[in-house]
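Annex B. Sample input.
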Amino acid sequence: MSIIRPFVVPLFAALLLPALLLVPPSSAAEPRPIAATPDLTLTETEVTYRADLDALVFDLTVKGRAGATEVTPAGQMDGAPVLAYAVPTTLKPEQLGFAPGPGVLALVATSHPDFDDTPLWDENGNGDTTDADDGRIFHTHWVVLVPDERVAGGLSVKPVEGDPKDVLPPTAPGMPIYLDSPGHTVLLQGNRLRIVVPGWRIRNLDRFNYDGVTAYLQVNASDESRPTLGIYKVYSVLSGDLSLPKTFKLP
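Annex B, continued. Sample output.
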């Protein structure tokens, strides 16, 4: 990691940030959430601990087939659709390597066919870590969410003020938002989407509360009145009110 990151991540940021920040205003893309499907309707969310592997398993169960619903590519970064299965938690951002501060830390599995934001990982195994096709395959992010009245879903990924390297984990892709690309394993198994997180990756892990959410997000690179990455439609909230009622505790 110490050898790869100094070259790969800055290069990725150099390629992606101009696309995010320098798109002409005339290319503004309006939000266009896809319709709800059983694949996005949650029936259960559980976080369990495997002591033999020192791993946490984040398990989301849906009525349909997990990950089967797809979004249509926008053909560009501005307006790029993002489909997400998320587990919002009461973990603190600094426990996962972000700078301390307000916001809800969530583990998210996303699919977005227009771009790749995991420059250290090769999800489709073709030997190209920055291949846009990697983005279509469900992969993991830790994100910090903040309230945002500018979007229909009421939340957006927290923006970075200043240098991203000062507030983001070393595996972050360099985008100007609180988003990390940790490379955790995602398993699609019928009606279940499972994410495997090594226990040692979460600092001072003891207990936390959590919830389950499925949602549509969209990238914005041209409209200053909207966030870079906001939630425009929430399909399912396990608790019904995002109260994070479920509790995980180390045995």
